[in-house]
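[SOLVED] Need 3D model of a two-part complex

Original post:
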Amino acid sequence: MASNNHKVHALEINADMIGALFTDRVGDRLRVFCFYLNGDTGQFDVPEEENRDSLHNLFAKLDMVGQCTSVILDKVVRGRIYVERDGNLFSYTLLATPSDVLPSINVEIYNLPWKTVWMSQEAQVLRLVGAGNSVHCYAICSPVNDVDAPALYRSSNAFVNPLSVPMKVSSPNHWVRQAVVASLLIVCLGLGWWLGYSYGHGAGAMRVSARGARLSQINVTAKVHMLANRNITGPYTMKDLGRMNEEGKIPADAMFRVEGSTEWLPLTEMPLNSAASITEVK
Amino acid sequence: MKAVTLVILIAALAFDRVVAEKLPAKPVKTQHAGKIAETEKAGDDLIFCGAKLEREGQAESALQLYGQAAAVGNREGAFRAGHLGLERAIQAKGKARILGLDMAFRYLHQAATNGHPDACLHLAQALRDGSEITKDLTQAYAWMVTAQKFDPSIPITVLDQFVVDLDAAALQEAQVISRRWLSGNWPERVTPRIIEGDSRLKISGGFRGAKIGVLINRKTFMLGDSAFVTPVTTAPKGSKNAPAELEITCTAIGPDFVLISIAGETDLRLLSLDLD
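Solution:
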């Protein structure tokens, strides 16, 4: 009964205790979600107009001014996984919560029974409750632009194209499903290998590499400029480039830029072999 | 046989899909990203007034208003303060020039790291010229790439003027640096911070001959000289608490200043000198 007579007039947050901060503007209100270093959380809404200075001050302490409206400090990040789902790319940032139910960082992370506890246009704060309500952990789910993804992986030194990320077992159905699918795939792969081998293409069929996937991002019909000896020349077709390479006319330290791009790449990143194979088909 | 393999493969994938649909729906709803960065509007009025004063020739007052706008996080204010400050610093001499350049590059750095393409271009040009700050062609190109990301209308030919300065290793490094910056890991500053005075160092005299020399902590330094000096201290001589010697380098000497770098410290120290 007494609590009905109480009203919170103001609220202070110690920026040094914040591990992640999310803000969102909805109309004339600011929505704030804090994840603290001890794994605790707090969220509240305030009128934007009269709290702008306080928010600016908090942003300044977290070195966010003019850069972003949400931040996750590295010290609370356990790891991050990028998962493609329904054609869209998402990052799941698993926060280092002091509890014992931290799930594995693998592709099944989005299949866990997360509950959304806070949501803005840029992020969803997810909570996973373990045995007993006091045991829990948090993750942040954010959409990632496909175009920016390669640069993002590079800048964050992420391991790309992992071949075997351990799967998390979530239900008996899951086991059955995985076993059946795995068996069928093994049969298919075996048949495919046997057929390929029989026709003398076994070695070719096995040639799958991460580099091949990266090269495929560059269109073989694209034209490129070459930077060598502090001089930019071109544009060249991939076919020209392949011929020049065979004739030894490309300096070892030459760099190449695909038309329409700003990024310079070494010769090893150019799809010269693909361009040659296209020519042969013609 | 290939057809049989294909049929089995399709069947396997179809089975996977059917089983997947029977599993509980994924609990997380998704939304497409909005832009995280937002433009700071605070300070626009200050910029408007500052621009008016600048047109009227009151550069000092304009600079103050731009500085105030920058202080509330306005990147245009920071850029204008940096640009105007740079113009004024270049015309100044001695200590005023050193401090003016320091302030101007701090403002340009603030604007650039908040997404102002012109500020990035200014930094790139300054790092390429090397007349006001230490020349660094790799960082110059990194700022150019960053500027182009912020403003894609910057022609590629402008970037090309910078890229021909670099060899392959420097070019790749510049691209890595730019990506790191754009992911939010900005450099702390583009020039070392300049701190006026240092209680550990004392200029006891100077002389002007063919070169300017200066006596710091009882040792003589010309431009570029490095030496160990005993810091000025109130501790008794031979005391166990006597501070360790400092290795200092005289990086610039003017008629009214000496700029000192100290080994192991990132900040530069600006000491006043009066040769007149």
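Edit: Residues 166-172, 196-216, 277-282 of chain A have pLDDT under 50 and may be disordered.
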